[in-house]
Amino acid sequence: MQIPIAFKATKTTYRHIRKGFTYLILFFVIIWTGFPVFWAILTSLKSWGDAVRLPPLFWGFEVQWSNYVRIFNPQFAFGSYLVNGLIGATGATCIALILAIPHAYVISRFQHKKLILASLWAVLGARLAPPVTLAVPMYIIYMRLHLLNTKLGVVLILTFLYEPFMVWILKGFFDTIPTEIEECARIDGCTRLQSVRKIVLPLIAPAVGASIIVSWLMAWNEFIMVFLLTSTKKAATVPVGILNFTLDRNIPYNLMMAAGVVGMVPTVLLILFFVRYLIRGLAEGAMKQ
Q: Which residues, other chains included, contact 238 with Cβ-Cβ below 8 Å and sequence gap of 6+?
């Protein structure tokens, strides 16, 4: 049976319209998400006068590459914020990973026990509670332990915030690994620890990589708790450091944007180098669901 030519044309036209509409939506999404980054880079290359000028300048201004040098001057000391951020995010991610793997495994394999079930609800509660609700008790604890304005304090609070996230992610992947695999390994002479290290962890390696990347990015961008627990350049991280640019009477928007662009570099490099692990982890999680 032959399909009428008019029907073929209508179907083809509908397919082209749908494809065009999809491209149009993608175009607006790219503009919506990409324009702030473009504007930050553009503003970071302007002088203060050009940065606050109305209407704004898109071209025709003198490029100020020196802005990226000025933010590292002792007045702003943005290098200290970068180092503190790298120490805080990396240290917290490493500690959280060391704690999260056994924590998630125990919850996954022994969640029928009441104590383990309580631990699961504690993790869920930690993820649902807004961080600002912990601000006052955390400040009091840090003050009594003399952890205010210390790098160790930043690492500990970031670990506290994002270890439950890693547990929640890894627990879902541990659930997808059949216990029969571990039982076979133990029959062959492996201990439980050996079966986890040699069999289970390699199977969920993409999930571990994805959780590391996401946790590091969230720790790098954490603002509220770090802002409350640090008040000097000694331990403050990049988001807090950018806020400190506003303490000047004439806010240097061009320098703030330069600091923001520099602060994006570690995250961009991390994603570029490890994006395959992130994609594999998310894809495997979607398929297992």
A: 81, 82, 84, 85, 220, 259, 263
